[in-house]
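Q: Could you predict the 3D structure of SDR family NAD(P)-dependent oxidoreductase?
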Amino acid sequence: MSLAGKSALVTGGGSGIGASAALRLAVEGCRLAIVDIRKGDAERIAALITARGGRAVAIAGDVSLEADNERFFDEAESALGGLDLAFLNAGAIQNYGPFDRMSIAEFDRMIAINLRGPYLGLRQAHRRLRLGGAAVVTASAAALTGFSDAAGYTAAKHGVVGLVRAAAREFASRGLRVNAICPGPVATPMIGAEQQDSVQDPSQLGTPAYRGELSPQMVAETALFLLSPAAAAINGQAQLVDAALLSAFPPAPEDQ
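A: Sure. Here are the predicted structure tokens for SDR family NAD(P)-dependent oxidoreductase:
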């Protein structure tokens, strides 16, 4: 995918999709800045990369804070000699419950992390990525349909797709691209799955069941494609990665 020698920043890179993306980017020859609100998690993934001969730096940061976004982009640029790619993956767990019982504080938290965070990150990426660079933001299948029991999360993720589409022109004006990925159910620590600190050759991933659960690496592979020159003609788009979850309604009886 012609990613060798590139420098990439990954938020939420200490676990789940972000960790898989960081590990795969390292395999492809990228230098990494791994950002996570839990610095210990970022340090663990960075150590795995450096132990295998790669180059990675771990940075603590809260994506919902403007000052933190500016700081961790500064630190990444300084450590890696500039930035080509940004995978803005960090997000908050979706809390389930009836629409009218969600607290205002919880709604504000969903917006702060899942929408304000990507906006702040994209502002920095637009200003700093080198010519030919790309940014990818993790949205959700909830960005393209309503999750009735996760109204705040759904609203924020819908906003992410709108943000990416609106930003595409300005990114293009600087020779950059921006896209979103919209995963369906993924086996990550955010939903209680065990963290996987390894990746495999993409040809060995297999195919998930229809409307089935995805591995973090399956989603990460799509992010890598969108970050790569192979996706040069793709800008301002939202790519579903959902094993056909939203492909048809109603689902087959055994899936209901």
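Q: Anything worth pointing out?
A: The longest helix spans residues 104-128.
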